[in-house]
Amino acid sequence: MEEKLKKIKDDTLEFIKSTKILDELEDIRVKVLGRKGLLTGVLRSLGELEPEIRGMVGKKSNEIKSIIEEALKDKKDELSKSRLGDVISQEWIDVTLDPEKSARNRTRGYLHPISQIQYQIEDIFTSMGFQILDGPETESDYYNFEALNIPKHHPARDMQDTFWTEDGNLLRTHTSAIQIRGMEKMTPPFRVIGPGRVFRYESIDASHENTFYQVEGMMIDRNISTSNLIYIMKQLLSEIFERDVKVRLRPGYFPFVEPGFELDINCLICGGTGCKVCKQTGWVELLPCGLVHPNVLRFGGIDPDEWSGFAFGLGLNRLIMMKYGINDIRHFMNGDIRFVKQF
Hints:
Layout: H1 2-18, H2 22-33, H3 38-44, H4 51-90, H5 113-127, E1 131-132, E2 138-139, H6 141-144, E3 170-171, H7 176-185, E4 190-199, E5 211-221, H8 226-241, E6 247-251, E7 257-266, E8 283-292, H9 294-299, E9 308-315, H10 316-324, H11 337-340
Parallel strand pairs: 1-4
Antiparallel strand pairs: 2-3, 4-5, 5-9, 6-7, 7-8, 8-9
Helix pairs in contact: 1-4, 2-4
């Protein structure tokens, strides 16, 4: 694997060095760092590696990613300056043109803040040896409920108002369904996250939406405890907010974990004094979490007498609201370009 990473780095740096065309840099970036790129493929395959080398490979991959990104930036600056010199010396520019009508004045596109924070979280977790998984947004009852220890007629189903389809399937109410699909394919020990869009049939207000985003996370190994969960969560939040964040862990009931907890974050909108986002409590519910229930491990084909683990579901929308001081969750889905351009 080290030789493969070295070859990816050396070949990519050579391509960057030899290119003479600005547009080719984007092709190189996509080929290597894109969501289906060579280096991204290595990061996504971490779960298949032996545990003793998984962390090293993840760390090395992120180091190479930084080196390639820096090389791309330097080459882009070099070619841009060269191209500007060619334009100045060879092209005639009519300075009397109306800049409002000029094609040169077109605005650039923007990544949605949800995409930005998702990519950042993926980078944080892959650096800690986690693998990124995906799953369908239209799910079966089995993966969304049954395999998560929520059988038919279970009271917990009332907690998640569900959009059902005519064929008996549903729009997933949480990304927890991804963990079951992951357990069916992977052999412990492993660490995975599964980001994605989820749906709830509920009333919309400043802190609730019917379409929002989560990141599901799970770690399966021997002798996993609540301490492992708390450590990973603190690492994540300190990276996201770039400072220590006050959190609290309180008991919570979720059928797929035992014991279950609610992890709350001190409201960064009001500083804990109370506002409409935190419903005047000073705290914002950020993620449910806990130790994986033995029944869920069995559904995933894992022996609970040998293996244990923790799982969590992180709400991306609320995390972004805390990070940037956004006081209404409805901004994310309203399509107003002025909102997106702020980020």
